[in-house]
Amino acid sequence: MPQESPSPEVLDEPPALRPPFTFIRWDASGPVAHLTLNRPRQNILNMLMLREMAAAIQSLSGRDDVRLILLDSAPECAGYFSAGVEALGYKSNMVFQMMDAFHGVFNAMVEVAKPVLAVVDGIASAGGCELAAFCDLVVASEEARFLQPEIKLGVFPPLGAAVYPRVIGPKRAMELLLTGNALTAQQALEMGLVNRVVPRAELAQTVDKLVRHIASQSGPVVSFMKQAVLQGMWKPFEEALRKSQDIYLNQLFELEDSQEGLRALVEKRQPVWKNK
Question: Is 45 in contact with 125 (CB distance < 8 Å)?
Answer without folding.
Answer: no
